[in-house]
Amino acid sequence: MEAEDVKAVTRAALSALQYMHSRGVLHRDIKPENILIKRVNSGLQAKIADFGLTCFVGPNERCTESVGTLCFAAPEVLSRLPYREAADLWSVGVTLYIMLHGTMPFAGKSDEETALSVLRRKLNFRGKSWTGVSSDAVAVLSALLVRHPRGRASGKEVLASDWLRVLHN
Questions:
Q1: Are 145 and 90 in contact (CB under 8 A)?
Q2: Catalytic-residue membership of 136
Q3: Residues β-bridged to residue 47
Q4: What is the C-alpha separation between 122 and 19, in angstroms, rounded?
Q5: C-alpha angle 55/59/65, rounded to 5°?
Q6: Phi/psi of residue 66, each to 5°?
Q7: Rounded to a whole number, what is the distance in angstroms from the first to the last CA of the chain?
């Protein structure tokens, strides 16, 4: 996938989530299979799909159910800690990692190994396989894949990042 296409998909997913989150709706299963992509003119149009695991939260409420797809689930979801919007943003980060690198950031031979990978694996964005990825894209990944939800970037922050603001021709 071309860099501008990855940006378009990421921007669309974040914009949709920002709208949902502003209305107290958490998706809870963001992953590539739940982002529908259509080529329009010279770009892409992306939409979020599959709202079967959504939940509604009031201003002072949090979800506690451990739902979603294991390798895309945020650490707080796997740890069964109360969570909100930041869990969806972690999943966007995992999806973005896949689009940029072509591999899963967190995986294991079993569900237990995968969960431990999500909870403990330190990501390294150095090396030959990352040379074609811009430092601005890596900065966005690093901001989304922060284990503690309070330290994770918000959708608004990522949408305002240099990587998504800069348009190339």
A1: yes
A2: no
A3: 36
A4: 31
A5: 35
A6: -90, 95
A7: 16
Write out the residue range of the structural domain in which residue 8 sits: 3-165
In the predicted model, what is the mean pLDDT of the chain?
93
Write a three-state SS string for 41-103. CCEEEEEECCCCCCEECCCCCCECCCCCCHHHCCHHHHCCCCECCHHHHHHHHHHHHHHHHCC
69: alpha, beta or left? (left if phi > 0; alpha if psi -120 to 50): beta
Domain containing residue 25: CATH number: 1.10.510.10
Tally of domains in the chain:
1
The candidate with the shortest Cα–Cα distance to 98, out of 69, 75, 63, is 69
Of all residues in the chain, the percent with pLDDT exceeding 70 is: 98
C-alpha 125/C-alpha 78 separation (Å) is 24
DSSP category for residue 133? S
Q: How confident is the model at residue 169 (pLDDT cuts 50, 70, 90)?
A: very low
pLDDT tens, residue by residue, 8-53: 999 999 999 999 999 999 999 999 999 999 988 877 889 999 999 9
What is the arithmetic mean of pLDDT over 110-137? 93
Residue 140 CB burial class (10 angstroms; 0-12, 13-18, ≥19): buried
Mean pLDDT of 80-107: 96
Which residue of the set 29, 88, 136, 162 is catalytic? 29
